[in-house]
Write a structure and sequence with these properties.
homotetramer, 19% strand
Chain lengths: 395, 395, 395, 395
């Protein structure tokens, strides 16, 4: 029922996005600048539309933090929508009734919440649906994720992401460690300098064709203690919770942990990550492995290896070349609605994926270690970590 | 907190598996034969090991059903483990302390819960972990899923599955409707008669090599009302809940809704499912589409099309050719443990996938329609369905 | 997991209180004025301190409402803390680190969260605890409750409260219907004009003695459909959920449904509410009763009678006559800390109780009837209500 | 979502009660005898009917325990209903359809789930409702509670109960420690030898009058670490969770923590529990208090004092002197239905109250301390306990 949880609220062109993150221990250093950094990363990436240049998201902390550290209270975040200052939007999205006749949106966009949302909620206008289903909401998640990132950082977990493919262009990331600074510097957040110009070109081509591109992003978490999640009940499996978190991101409809889809083609003897004998463990490591096909998760639990998760993002459905569709009121043929949009958001999706992974790991860390002050959490975690390794039986 | 939920309990060689399914309305016809049918389907499929031939699972209903229909109470199911009758298992898995010295299992199997489970739970023996992490538990889920299937069936939803690939062998299912009876008759549950013998051969080859094979299965749900799930909060998105449910299945580490991974390579104009004008809707259908790349889910909600979900199953990690691994007590090199196992479980995984999809849909149906007697649920659903379609604005 | 839920955030002297209410259907008329009305009622009552006169709470709606009606999205509310404008508070409760040395509060107040909170969260200062544990947070609940009140109002439920006792002064409310307008006009929100001056005098006397007074308030809900909640699982019982909601109010440590404590002294034959025969039912009513000892709840479900719940409020622990206590840092004897406080908050507690009851009923209504537009909820409710009454068996 | 949780299933005359308790750490000693002890205590007490003498409840452990200790898996319990062996019940409560015409129960019992249950679930027969709403279900809770008791016992918490009043007869328990063995030996579980014969006489008198008696029971938990629960969110308050748990017990409609109702009449200066200076703390204790009006809970958290909770139990509604009521099918006047029943169950209710308190505390302990093996839980708890006490500020 309780434990670490978060809720977001707010419409794309309403006054603001609101976030409450519940269950963060006290004593965790947290400031608006940390959150702003991730919000800015989400707004970047080659292929974004005009809105991302106009607005610079900033999450104001309005609860749960005092003098630079959390105090155990729920954390409230408030991200103003710059657009809402615009007089048109203030009327269109007014909380109060307005005198003006409002134009309805009735041209349904396939691929969006437009059709199922209007049917479910009983509307003859897409506006009330698209305002909340817009990917604008992911700014709220990235803000919540920045809090979670700080929390899991306190027990040594770091989280990064990079672009694996955009359209048909696939990156070949290095076999070993990724240079995360280089990824952040890349306009498409790719770890393969060769792929970068081809990705940019693919985005340009799609944009010129009034079209959009999807792709695949990968999120990695290092320093994850062994044993988060559990095999004992279906809804406690960490890999499954991560899958939910990823597919909950707008336009992400597929997810794989480690080499899941490649493994489905391999034989068992090729799909495993041999546990190395103690003599081959790098200094400071325990239970080292020869590979990481499993993406850091076995039996629904973290296994101490890097967690590696990929999300498959479909190309955005709102495209300037308006597609054949139907009208909500009449069912007659009509082109789909187009407001503004991005040609490609794969680089940003990685940042959102980081946030969702951080949020899932934060919950798992608190479930395993408890603790109401960050020192208590750290102490419990350290005491547990000391027990990890080859063991003689308990008496 | 409440709503439709279920828990399972029980170890692989313990006395029994136990299931409680909470939140089922009254008045739903339900009998042990229905559940037995799905349990038998789970035990079938070419490539299964000896255990599946020995045991014939049967779930006894011990609560929540009277005279052939549910009564609104939680439904309790009890699946006896035939193995537990064996004297060895009665000692090894005795609830009470035993006089005998117990042999511990300390040869860690990569790919299983063995390593993270023993570290997390603090054991010097893999037995307490593997008994619960065993895929035996999926029998409990299939039983729970049979209850959910009956429930969603009451509002017209039907759920099927078929095998998409085994190892490198990929089926080419027909473009149109699948002949589900033929799938059930196929030893590998495949909808492509050409692929069947090649799949069987691939399994034989893997078995001969003391190895195992994974693959991809697909689950489809028809008759799903438009508007299950919601776009308004991350954890209410139906696609994400389905992703969690699928990845929670043992050995499933990847999932895609519709053509997720293929869509990630397409342009936006190619990835969409055009909404057809009213003149082209087949009789009795509303908001018909020209394709189903989205797999029946848009904006986190069902869109009235067939729901199509694929799960990527890794090859089982317990293989007769014991793999290099390490010993739990010492960290020294050791071959991995082998009890008995299956060479390929992809056909069974489809059945488990059906169960998980049914469970997720049952929750979503009850959340949208409420109702405590199945007639009330049906009435609410029918009244809603009557509102689906082109609409003139509410006054 | 999902369904109707709400979270609040914010400290007493921080920038604001934040509320997110999730799961409200679309189409519900809602405006800031409605919420302001309940917020003002919470701030009233004889015996309140200075802060209530200074501040006039106002909840700004920043999400989930457009043009005067809800749109199915989570509803975000934002209540600014007027106090935070004060320069001292802006420093003391600054989110960012401050240069000034902060004075710590170390004089523990018995009866508050001070002691357990500092121990649990690991603080050497009470400030981080008392800022969140302050009853200021109940403003957020009353705002959330106003949303819930609107929601349950849509199916005909109305909720009121009145003061039953203050200190030793007990009201004798009329046996029949209560004149709620008169209650609202009373400075102590009492339904007994004789008791009113004695209650006022008791508060004055306590204030003069630098002391405080508690009391008992009663909340009633009329028009509740029969059959909310359920007997089938412990956590679905509506009476138990109401008990949790009431005891979750600051300073409320006891609760009774109907005549619970008096019934504990009666014999079974005296404690029941006879079901009247159909001939004696008032027009439009079904299953009328001769009395309401049960307070509208039987078997964990609403029975169609008025729901009647009483909360026992202890006298506020922060009193001007500082009490013997101990210092947090040293454990040495010290008088307890006193900031400002109220002499009596029983009248306000009734308003908070209304909010909590509304929130519990909103969840129960949505669980029973489902529905994503308020018309769908109403339609499902009406169709169910038509089935209530004597019945011939289903075939 | 996850964390410590439990579900029960089963009807009063069905084959069995089933319990699943999820989230228990591994390594906890647990056996059927422990559970049987509490089940027997629940069946005792002067004033119980014939059924309690006939049946001797026994919970078989069928999951989650191996060789006398828990293994981290969900714990499954199975309590057979002896009554179900009876041929009549096997037909009346058959899971499968039966050939016989079944007699329906249509005489509604006021005070029970009969009326709201049949209306809610849409039945023309009370049987499907009363079988689950029967207090028989509390056997399942007591079994679950025995598991929770073992768990909280591992961190030093002990839980007892005694009878405070039966009808008009009130016990005067000693001011100091209660002799729990004497309570267990008392037929009415009372801590006041003077009251005992008067309570027995009151029960006899009620029984002779074909009537029933309720009363008040008190549950106490000692050794509770300071800081369980939290003030930060309404649903994390431990006192409120306890209130829910108590009112969820059949026939309990009121609850108070400590002196809640007496405190509502006191002034603030009289209602508090002064924190004693360090010089007056008994050896080994920290933050000792001069009294315990608060019942061990302040600000929604345990404060290290004994937790004291009282439940008000109404007299059982099923009484041999059948009450005026109405018929479910026709609404015509009819006497209420009488199967068999108990004249007084207050002594048993205390045992059920212990179980519910244990279950709430188990969840709170795991939330605060985490831990997957009981040693890890204990280690985290001990490390925290070492920080409790007067403190110099963290740097």
């Amino acid at each position: 029922m309780t434990g670490f949880r978060f809720l977001t609220a707010g419409e794309s062109h309403g006054p603001a996005l609101t976030v409450i993150v519940e269950g963060v221990p006290g004593g965790l250093p947290l400031g608006e600048a940390q959150i702003a950094r991730d919000l800015a990363r989400r707004q970047g990436g080659y292929g974004r539309g005009r809105r991302q240049q106009i607005e610079r998201d900033f999450a104001r902390i309005t609860g749960g933090v005092r003098h630079g550290t959390t105090i155990g209270s729920p954390i409230a975040l408030w991200i103003e929508n710059a657009d809402h200052q615009n007089a048109n939007w203030r009327v269109r999205m007014s909380v109060d009734p307005v005198a003006e006749e409002m134009e309805r949106i009735t041209l349904l966009r396939p691929g969006h919440a437009d059709l199922p949302g209007t049917q479910k909620y009983g509307y003859a206008d897409v506006r009330p649906i698209l305002e909340r289903s817009s990917a604008r909401e992911t700014a709220a998640r990235v803000a919540a994720g920045a809090v979670a990132r700080a929390l899991v950082g306190a027990v040594g977990i770091t989280i990064h992401s990079h672009t694996v493919s955009i359209g048909h262009v696939e990156a070949e990331p290095p076999a070993g460690a990724i240079d995360w600074e280089a990824v952040e510097a890349s306009p498409v957040r790719v770890a393969d300098p060769q792929a970068e110009p081809r990705m940019v070109a693919a985005i340009d081509a799609a944009k010129d064709a009034l079209d959009s591109l999807g792709g695949i992003f990968e999120v990695r978490a290092s320093g994850v203690p062994i044993g988060l999640g559990s095999h004992v009940q279906w809804d406690r499996r960490l890999d499954a919770q991560i899958a939910q978190a990823f597919v909950s991101i707008n336009a992400v409809k597929g997810v794989e942990i480690g080499d899941a889809f490649a493994n489905a083609r391999r034989r068992g003897s090729q799909a495993q990550d041999a546990i190395l004998p103690v003599s081959q463990w790098p200094r400071g490591e325990r239970w080292a492995r020869g590979s990481n096909h499993a993406g850091g998760l076995e039996g629904g639990m973290s296994n101490g290896q890097e967690i590696v998760v990929r999300g498959a993002l479909k190309p955005l459905s709102t495209i300037p070349s308006r597609m054949p569709s139907a009208d909500l009121l009449t069912g007659e043929a009509a082109p789909s609605f187009y407001e503004r949009s991005d040609a490609c958001v794969v680089p940003a999706a990685g940042v959102i994926g980081e946030a969702m992974l951080a949020l899932v790991l934060a919950r798992a860390v608190l479930e395993k270690f408890g603790g109401d002050h960050i020192d208590e959490l750290r102490r419990n975690c350290a005491a547990y970590q000391a027990t990890v390794g080859p063991r003689e039986p308990r008496p």
